[in-house]
Design brief:
heterodimer, A: alpha/beta, Pectate Lyase C-like, eleven-stranded mixed beta sheet, about 15% helix, globular, B: alpha/beta, Alpha-Beta Plaits, TIM Barrel, 2 domains, eight-stranded parallel barrel, three-stranded mixed beta sheet, 16 helices, binds iron/sulfur cluster
């Protein structure tokens, strides 16, 4: 059985995850789950090459510790989808709460609309594992705080969104944040460097723009034509000069 | 420079009548104290940290080390340490960082508590003759059991029990990460806990592949940096520990400098070689007890509810109230790390001034959980400054289920508590990643020494219990009647809930 349907109505998250794991174990390639009503931890720690199609509103920590699966969520997600995720993809047709992609170490998270505070906080990279977070709308303050690796791209469909957000990239010591358009100096956090994007750098985000446009069925043209601001670490060792030995 | 040179910390002298110029001290000192000049050993005593590697290796007992050979004018307030910290900061303007635990001479509560023994009226038990039960189970215990009596008289257990960790002794080894200590040090500890039938923590550094054979005795840690954490790591551990805080530096994060992140360390931490590993002060997905519950459950859900989840906090003023929240978070055990806990590097001001002693914290946490009727929901693990078996007995009598030892296990590997772990050139091969130094620590010998230590303590614990007429660790737990305070003030006696000697 390649395709499985699960009805999540009035189902607690543990039995829901048990059904998902069982289906994956039995070789399912596509799992559709309907009537999701805020169940947390969906696909938590799930491994393998399965695709999940979720209908409804997902609770916190969607795809936490996940390693491999491909999730499409038709609806909004609560906080921290992609928390400490290792590999795979999450595409959210809607908005998501705070700490999206918290400590994510690999894979990709796409959010069509907006996300809350601390998005991409402490994302990190290692060898070929390079996590990516793409946001179609805007993000609240402290985007990419403590970021240690990976890439965040904010397409800012409404160009003046995020004008009042603060602390973008504060404490960043690896990775890069791309934001469409210009960002005020007051908006970026300590330890950051803010520059207009160069051609090489734009080349890194073009495939992601296409992937975003394809996933959500939008026209990539306006994003491809735009200018971007790149926020990166002022130093790879932000705390190196703070301490003296006893 | 206006401050000039400060007095020597240690004077190193070589007795030339004894010295045979074998140069072992030159080879062994990783701090650069010794050098050979024209067949004679010369010293630069200013580099000495008193790690005693040279003393231990000198075949002729030719080396002597004297602490503080030059005195400042003594003063009760403006002590040497205070003055030198001021000199340091006047020069640098920076935060002072040091290794190992709290360095201030606060009174030790353990040393103001005495244990009981039987005389005449209730006989003591001879552990050689009678079985002594030291086996300890960590994790949730059911508040009641549902049983079904069948028609044929058989009784069946209906309640589902949650997984517990089974320890052959209430002594475990706390979290010291690969990166902070060497792989040979971790391997020594891992072999020892495996042999004894107890557990050790991985620290926030992931689990090195070569330790997979011992994973059944490893508690994997999830800290705010989430270094080395993936589903593979979580599934390998016997239990998972969320580190919220650490006794040596409550309230602040951790920071492994890039120099210590070599290729191997970078593999287990899953970060690029040479990059700083920065753990933020809080977990940024935990801003409340409700969020903590979310992470506890997230970890359990990821590992299909098969593993106990521990939560470690630093012992602070309101530990008891925090613990009561943790006990309701689905966690299986709470680790309370006292202010004497060791560490590779901590800001001096935190190490010496923030947090409370583990004795007081354990007693108040145990009391609070009992008052609220939820003591069975979690086990309590005490850590930070456990030096000997008597401390283990005392802290269990104050309410702990088990202890983590850290520094004591390192001392069993040769550590002299020189307090310079942060320098990364530990001459004993413990707190270093330099291959030539790491090689000095043989995991076979090391593990025997650590296993011997735990074995010795466990036997002493059995003797202490037997003398008190107790044959099971369960009957010692929280049994404050077997403790008396000697010269503690009344307020502290109330907190600990112990009587005075003679009472
Ligand atoms: S190890 Fe001892 S005997 Fe050998 S050179 Fe050094 S001081 Fe002399
Ligand atoms: S482990 Fe740390 S305190 Fe112990 S000997 Fe090595 S450097 Fe010194």
């Amino acid at each position: 059985m390649d395709k499985i349907e699960i009805d999540a109505k009035e189902l607690h998250y543990t039995p829901l995850n048990q059904q998902i794991r069982k289906a994956v174990h039995e070789g399912a390639k596509e799992i559709t789950i309907r009537n999701i009503m805020g169940q947390r931890f969906i696909a938590d720690g799930l491994k393998g090459g399965v695709s999940l199609f979720l209908h409804g509103v997902a609770g916190g920590d969607l795809g936490m510790f996940m390693s491999g699966p491909d999730i499409t969520l038709y609806g909004n997600a609560d906080h921290a989808p992609g928390n400490t995720m290792d590999a795979g993809t999450i595409a959210i047709h809607g908005s998501a709460g705070d700490a999206v992609a918290h400590s994510m170490r690999g894979g990709k998270v796409f959010v069509r609309d907006t996300i809350g505070y601390r998005g991409g906080i402490h994302m990190k990279q290692y060898l070929d594992k390079r996590p990516v977070l793409v946001i179609g709308g805007s993000a609240r303050s402290f985007l990419g705080e403590y970021m240690a690796g990976g890439l965040i791209l904010v397409l800012r469909r409404t160009p003046d969104a995020m004008n009042d957000e603060r602390g973008i990239g504060s404490g960043i010591h690896g990775g890069e944040i791309f934001i469409r358009g210009k960002i005020d100096n007051n908006c970026v956090g300590v330890g950051t460097k803010k520059d207009p994007c160069s051609g090489d750098e734009i080349a890194r985000i073009i495939p992601l723009i296409h992937e975003f446009a394809e996933k959500f069925g939008v026209d990539p043209a306006p994003f491809l034509k735009s200018e971007y601001t790149r926020i990166s670490p002022a130093s790879a060792r932000p705390f190196a000069n703070k301490y003296t030995w006893e | 420079m206006s401050i000039g040179t400060v007095p020597l910390k240690f004077r190193v002298t070589i007795d030339n009548k004894q010295c045979m110029a074998c140069a072992r001290c030159v080879e062994n000192c990783s701090y650069g104290v010794f050098r050979m000049e024209n067949g004679v050993v010369r010293v630069s005593p200013r580099h000495c940290v008193a790690c005693h590697r040279c003393l231990a290796m000198c075949p002729r007992d030719a080396i002597s080390i004297e602490e503080r050979p030059v005195d400042y004018r003594s003063h009760p307030l403006w002590t040497t340490d205070v003055k030198e910290a001021i000199f340091n900061q006047a020069r640098t303007g920076k935060i002072i960082v040091g290794g190992m635990g709290n360095a201030l001479p606060y009174p030790v509560i353990f040393d103001r508590l005495v244990l009981d023994a039987c005389q005449v009226t209730n006989p003591s038990i001879d552990p050689l003759r009678e079985p002594m039960e030291l086996r300890t189970y960590l994790g949730k215990k059911p508040s009641h059991l549902d049983l079904l009596t069948k028609i044929n008289g058989d009784v069946e257990l209906i309640s589902t029990l949650v997984p517990n960790l089974k320890l052959e002794t209430p002594i475990m080894i706390g979290h010291m990460s690969y990166g902070a200590i060497s792989l040979n040090a971790q391997t020594s500890l891992a072999k020892a806990v495996n042999e004894i039938g107890t557990f050790m923590g991985t620290g926030e550094g992931g689990l090195h592949e070569s330790l997979y054979p011992y994973q059944g005795n490893m508690i994997v840690q999830v800290a705010s940096g989430r270094f080395g954490v993936d589903i593979n790591y979580l599934e390998r551990g016997a239990a998972i520990e969320i580190k919220i805080g650490q006794g040596a530096k409550p309230g602040i994060g951790g920071h492994l400098p890039g120099e210590k992140v070599n290729r191997e360390v970078s593999v287990t931490r899953m970060i690029p070689e040479g990059s700083d590993a920065i753990s933020p002060a809080p977990h940024h997905d935990i801003y409340s007890i409700e969020d903590l519950k979310q992470l506890v459950r997230g970890l359990k859900e990821a590992t299909e509810w098969k593993k106990p989840v521990f939560v470690k906090i630093a012992a602070v003023h309101n530990s008891a109230a925090i613990a009561a929240g943790i006990a309701r978070s689905s966690a299986d055990a709470i680790v309370i790390d006292g202010f004497r806990g060791g560490t590779g590097a901590a800001p001096r001001v935190f190490r010496d001034h923030v947090g409370i002693p583990v004795e007081a914290a354990i007693a108040s946490v145990d009391a609070k959980l009992r008052q609220q009727g939820i003591r069975n929901e979690v086990s309590i693990i005490a850590s930070g400054g456990i030096r000997e078996s008597a401390d283990v007995a005392k802290i269990i009598a104050l309410g702990a289920d088990a202890v983590y030892i850290g520094t004591a296990a390192l001392i069993a590997l040769g550590c002299r508590v020189c307090g310079t772990c942060n320098r990364g050139v530990c001459a004993w091969g413990i707190a270093t990643q330099r291959p030539d130094l790491v090689k000095r620590l043989d995991p076979e010998t090391g593990s025997k020494q650590v296993a011997n230590l735990i074995h010795g303590w466990t036997d002493e614990l059995a003797e202490l219990m037997g003398a008190a007429g107790i044959n099971s660790i369960e009957s010692l737990r929280g049994n404050r009647d077997r403790l008396r305070s000697y010269m503690l003030d009344e307020a502290l006696m109330t907190v600990l809930d112990v009587k005075s000697v003679g009472a």
